C-alpha cells in the first residue's frame, strides 16, 4: 500500500515539473547597453576616434573629422544637435 502511494505521489510530482529544454530560437536577446550617441555621430560624419586620459574627467574621446577638425566627441554632438528650446 505504501509503495503504491509513493509511486502515485512521485508520478504526480513528475507531471508538475516543467521541461528543462528551452527553444532558444524564439527567445529575444536584449542588448547589453545602448551605444554612445556621440560616438555614432562622429563615425557617421566620417570621423575617427582617439581616446586620451584627463586627470579630472578620466577618458575623453576626440573625433578626428575628414576636414582635419579635432573635437571632443560630445562637444561636436552638442554643437550640431542643440537642444530644442523649452516652451
Automatic annotation (TrEMBL):
Annotated region described as Disordered, given as residue ranges: 16-35
Protein name: Hemolysin
Organism expressing this protein natively: Acetobacter tropicalis NBRC 101654
Amino acid at each position: 500500500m505504501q509503495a503504491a502511494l509513493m509511486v502515485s505521489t512521485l508520478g504526480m510530482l513528475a507531471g508538475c515539473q516543467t521541461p528543462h529544454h528551452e527553444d532558444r530560437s524564439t527567445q529575444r536577446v536584449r542588448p547589453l547597453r545602448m551605444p554612445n550617441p556621440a560616438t555614432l555621430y562622429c563615425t557617421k560624419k566620417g570621423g575617427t576616434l582617439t581616446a586620451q586620459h584627463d586627470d579630472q574627467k578620466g577618458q575623453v574621446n576626440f573625433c578626428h573629422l575628414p576636414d582635419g577638425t579635432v573635437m571632443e566627441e560630445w562637444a561636436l554632438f552638442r554643437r550640431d544637435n542643440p537642444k530644442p528650446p523649452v516652451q
